[in-house]
Amino acid sequence: MEKLIAQLIWIGVSYLIGSIPFGLIIAKSKQGVDLRDVGSGNIGATNVARTCGFFYGVCTFLLDMLKGIIPVAIAFKLSTNSIFISLTALSAIIGHMYSVFLNYKGGKGVATTIGIYLILNSCALIISVIIALLIIYLTGYVSLGSIILVMIMPIFMLFQKGFIYFLVSLIIMLLVINKHRENIARVLKGQENTWKKN
Predict the structure, then answer these.
(1) Environment class of residue 141 by beta-carbon count within 10 Å: exposed (0-12), middle (13-18) or buried (19+)?
(2) pLDDT digits (tens, 9 = 90+) for 94-117
(3) CA nearest to 17, candidates 52, 59, 54, 66
(4) pLDDT digit string (tens) for 141-181?
(5) How far apart are CA 8 and CA 27, in angstroms?
(6) Residues 6+ positions from 24 with CB-CB distance below 8 Å
(7) Using alpha carbons only, how large is the chain's radius of gyration in Å?
(8) By the 8 A CB rule, do 108 and 46 touch?
(9) 141, 135 in Cβ contact below 8 A?
(10) Which residues contact 32 (CB under 8 A, 6 or more apart)?
(11) pLDDT digits 0-9 by tens, 2-19
């Protein structure tokens, strides 16, 4: 029972870690602006890079990655139970997307998702990131590369990690795609900003 309580507490803590809006904090401290009112209105690394500069975008990306890395890495230390680890991963990503600190709004979850997969399946992640970067380079669309990445990972998880991790990766994919639905519409219309556009 104590172990179960500890795991439930950690799942809750993981949500709070995921909820920390690093992009918003960085933009406020650097430019004194609310990211939700500038650029794309998103609190993620791409909008930070466009608003505050490439360096601060990278900082945001790395910090958002840590929101996935830390909860899942500690979950592995606490237990080898795939359901517990999967729920921890989901809590972190849901925290980023629906932050308690931002009235249950948030980012699109790509960096946090990468952090999660860095722990769950780093080799598959490297392959997926290379493909995603190639897509971004060829099309200029960061959003399209992000979507491709989360669509590839469930295939790897199914064959390499089993059904539970496949299921969580499928849920993550749906969450990320849902957050990118406006981007998808703009890509289809040819109206999406490219990564080069400021």
Answers:
(1) buried
(2) 999 999 999 999 999 999 999 999
(3) 66
(4) 888 999 999 999 999 999 999 999 999 999 999 999 999 99
(5) 33
(6) 34, 35, 36, 43, 102
(7) 16
(8) no
(9) yes
(10) none
(11) 888 999 999 999 999 999
Cα distance between residue 72 and residue 89, in whole Å: 6
| 3-class DSSP string for the chain | CHHHHHHHHHHHHHHHHHHCCHHHHHHHHHHCCCHHHCCCCCCCHHHHHHHHCHHHHHHHHHHHHHHHHHHHHHHHHHCCCHHHHHHHHHHHHHHHHCEHHHCCECCCCHHHHHHHHHHHCHHHHHHHHHHHHHHHHHHCCHHHHHHHHHHHHHHHHHHHCCHHHHHHHHHHHHHHHHHCHHHHHHHHHCCCCCCCCC
What's the longest Cα–Cα distance across the chain?
54
Nearest to 5 by CA among 78, 98, 96: 78
Angle formed at CA 42 by CA 37 and CA 44, multiple of 5 degrees:
130
Task: State which amino acid sits at residue 175.
Answer: L
